[in-house]
């Protein structure tokens, strides 16, 4: 069944095999910057994408999920932001758009829009409301899958409070997995802001050690990975630890870090809280300590 007429490089039936062959490298999960009057900063978003592309920091962009504050956006804002990302990336690097929503009908609408504007892949996060067992989760994914054409990556993130079981991921039922693809077998790093926060023009250790690892040059890759440890620890301090430790979604820290690097971050939307002056001073000192500014 076809719901939207989209010209793409793969068919619904071979989405998994296409992804395993082509979905690879170091991708970044980008934030959506806001203006002081609480609108999406369209020029700032374009600037950030060009910064990542022109400086060869990323092999692809993932947008519209947790790093983008998707829960705080209207459907129209999500569509408009996706249009900007796809437009700015066209001809340079591929784009994956997250289309998950508490309403499966909204998810399908977002998926059709992403397909029409030329997104390379779609993504759906685990349902985070009113899905409490495998059957309910399965039905959520299946409803969306049966109404889309593009390949869909399931992002199995603990932020939602739901974690997919191995049995769910390995389900042989083609009615849902027919057009869904998981990360298994794909040589891909994604769903993180680390690639553009911990790399800078002329200094791309994540891409360097990934390329070496993919080539089988494991000792050289391991050496770069070891040298990257201070940066990794700093990223964990500001972007990973706040959630399990304090139940703080660290988007304000992410956006402030972007500002420090010359990207555009801007404020966050309630109920997230803005970074404090003391936190910003500490973050700036930390980022400077590893040579990023």
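Sequence proposed for the structure above (293 residues):
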């Amino acid at each position: 069944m076809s719901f939207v007429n989209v010209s793409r490089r793969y068919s619904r039936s071979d989405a998994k095999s296409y992804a395993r062959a082509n979905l690879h490298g170091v991708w970044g999960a980008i934030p959506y910057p806001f203006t002081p009057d609480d609108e999406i900063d369209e020029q700032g978003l374009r600037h950030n994408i060009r910064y990542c592309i022109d400086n060869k920091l990323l092999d692809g962009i993932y947008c519209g999920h947790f790093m983008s504050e998707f829960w705080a956006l209207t459907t129209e804002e999500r569509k408009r932001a996706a249009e900007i990302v796809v437009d700015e990336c066209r001809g340079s690097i591929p784009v994956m758009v997250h289309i998950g929503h508490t309403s499966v009908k909204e998810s399908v609408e977002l998926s059709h829009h992403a397909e029409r504007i030329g997104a390379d892949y779609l993504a759906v996060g685990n349902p985070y409301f009113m899905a409490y067992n495998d059957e309910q989760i399965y039905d959520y994914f299946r409803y969306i899958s049966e109404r889309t054409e593009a390949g869909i990556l399931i992002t199995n993130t603990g932020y939602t409070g739901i974690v997919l079981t191995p049995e769910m991921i390995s389900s042989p039922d083609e009615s849902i997995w027919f057009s869904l693809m998981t990360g298994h077998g794909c040589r891909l790093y994604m769903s993180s802001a680390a690639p553009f926060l911990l790399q800078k023009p002329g200094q791309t250790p994540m891409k360097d050690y990934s390329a070496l690892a993919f080539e089988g040059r494991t000792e050289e890759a391991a050496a770069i990975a070891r040298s990257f440890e201070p940066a990794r620890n700093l990223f964990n301090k500001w972007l990973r630890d706040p959630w399990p430790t304090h139940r703080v979604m660290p988007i304000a820290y992410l956006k402030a870090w972007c500002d420090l690097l010359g990207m555009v971050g801007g404020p966050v939307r309630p109920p997230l809280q803005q970074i404090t002056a003391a936190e910003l001073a500490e973050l700036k000192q930390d980022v400077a300590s590893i040579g990023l500014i």
